Amino acid sequence: MSEPAWTDAVVAEHLRKTFGTLVAVDDITMTIARGEVFGFLGPNGSGKTTTIRMLCGLMTPSGGTATVVGYDVRRDAERIRRRIGYMSQKFGLYDDLTVMENMRFYASIYGLHGAARRARLAELVAELGLGDRVDQLAGTLSGGWKQRLALACAVAHRPAMLFLDEPTAGVDPASRRIFWQRIHALAGQGTTILVTTHYMDEAEQCGRLAFLSRGHLIAVGTVPEILAQFHQPTIEDVFIELQRRDEGAVV
User: Fold this and answer.
1) N or C: which terminus of the chain carries fewer CB neighbours within 10 A?
2) DSSP letter, residue 238
């Protein structure tokens, strides 16, 4: 089956998710362009992770529609999962495997084998500076090195879109800077990035931002557009305002 043509990596219209009487996400409508670095922000409980799970094909929407890299989240969830990468703040790799063993395992899951796998992993080792760590057990790595390994595993199959759910939480500032350099390099190569973060200096590196509040999308735009809408001097002030609004919300 040939892949569908697509221009926008994400097209969501009136996306909704309920759990019984709880409305976790309500009426999310947005687009994310190919190659865009898109910040997805909001206080804890605002609906970010639920929305991401729907876009990744891991959770069926209760209402509305969405396509990711040209595929429908309801009908083509498995195809979406083969075309995206995902990285979270919690290190989800195997502590008792070496760096290279982890990379081989995840590359194999995504269908890379033989010479193609060896070439791709060598490329990632060089790009992410993992050469001196390939034989080290993943469980003994520092937070910054674990982050590099997790990113290598997430992009081993050259995904069209990468979902990053607070990937730099608890990582030192120097490692965060290196990570964001790599993110912009990936975007420059055409990979679409959706990232959630609680670091406002990271949010300001995104081309556009979306803010969620209690399951509702309340703002989408560039940093200057968001600041103008909320009449605030900084993105951090916008975030603080939303935290006050969302106090006591559970999603």
Assistant:
1) N
2) H
User: pTM of the full predicted structure?
Assistant: 0.92
Of residues 68, 4, 12, the one with CA closest to residue 217: 12
> Can you list the domains of the chain with their CATH numbers?
8-245 (3.40.50.300)
Cα separation values, 246 from 8, 42, 212, 239, Å? 30, 9, 10, 10
pLDDT digit of tens for each residue in the chain (251 aa)? 567 878 899 999 999 999 999 999 999 999 999 999 999 999 888 999 999 999 999 999 999 999 999 999 999 999 999 999 999 877 678 999 999 999 999 999 999 999 999 999 999 999 999 999 999 999 999 988 999 999 999 999 999 999 999 898 888 888 899 899 999 999 999 999 999 998 999 999 999 999 999 999 999 999 999 999 999 999 999 988 888 877 654 43
Alpha-carbon distance of 57 to 73, in angstroms, equals 5
